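FAQ: What does the model actually see?

It sees only this:
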Amino acid sequence: MHLSTTPRPTTAAPPEWVTGAAWVDELAAPEGLSRVRVDSVHFAPGARTAWHRHPFGQVLHVTEGTGRVQSRGGAVRTLRPGDTVRVAPGEWHWHGAAPDTFMTHLAVQEVADDGTEAELGAHVTDSAYLA
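And it is asked to produce this:
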């Protein structure tokens, strides 16, 4: 068992990954035989990820605020604290805050053996986000 008592610094999400402002706190990174990554992501109002997909899928769990999520071809869905979303392996999706509130979620995914965490797609347009 490993207990982390030294917090890692909060980092800004890179602009190629998000529209708007978002901050990431790494809670767990792949280590040894584990391929699990866990991040706490805090989105400013209106901020959202670009379209992306994960080789082994992703689990999102909202801890505060109101958010949005969409899978390619599906409707934009509202997320609230306590909601959990399971994204299938290879499923294109985006997620972020609602237009008028911050949103924080835990993001859990496995990293592929070659280090791949996700494949990045296009940014989500304002019209798609507001749909």
